[in-house]
Design brief:
CATH architecture: Sandwich
Number of helices: 1
Oligomer: single chain
CATH class: Mainly Beta
Shape: elongated
Largest sheet: 8 strands, mixed
Order of helices and strands: HEEEEEEEE
Number of domains: 1
CATH topology: Immunoglobulin-like
Radius of gyration: 22 Å
Helix content: 10-25%
Number of strands: 8
């Protein structure tokens, strides 16, 4: 092996070793994300469902976007709905998810709600993966909304 080629190989190996030595452990993240579910949910006269809570997140990767998915489980029924636009600036914010009554069979009483803060990785305009970065599951009381 010639000397310049040997130096390049040694430099590449050194760079790889330095990257491995200073890389964060698997599963570690530099972002701080959190989400919570409010203890009360509401069902409207037309059967529509309203879920809410709070969230906070840091700016998503430039290759991705953030979304909130809320799921209510009640007896044999399960309904997943999305919340409004997510703003990731580190500030704690309120989220609200609403499902029209045509798709809901939720009634007043006890239910379990799971809220997920998800990062959607994009390639161009197409999503390539969805990762849950924060999750909360709570037993809630569903009230009639008048």
């Amino acid at each position: 092996m010639r000397t310049p080629a040997r130096r390049m190989a040694l430099a590449a190996l050194s760079a790889l070793a330095a990257t491995a030595a200073f890389a964060p452990p698997a599963g570690a993240t530099v972002f701080e994300h959190g989400i919570s579910v409010h203890e009360d949910a509401y069902v409207q006269e037309d059967g529509g469902v309203i879920l809410s809570g709070t969230y906070h997140c840091e700016q998503a990767s430039p290759m991705g976007a953030m979304q909130i998915k809320a799921t209510v489980d009640q007896g044999d029924g399960r309904l997943s709905i999305g919340a409004e636009e997510v703003v990731c600036d580190g500030t704690e914010r309120r989220w609200v998810a609403h499902a029209p009554g045509a798709f809901s069979h939720v009634h007043p009483g006890r239910a379990t709600v799971t809220a997920e803060l998800q990062e959607i990785r994009l390639s161009g305009l197409m999503p390539t993966s969805v990762a849950t970065v924060a999750q909360d599951t709570e037993d809630v009381t569903v009230h009639e909304d008048r």
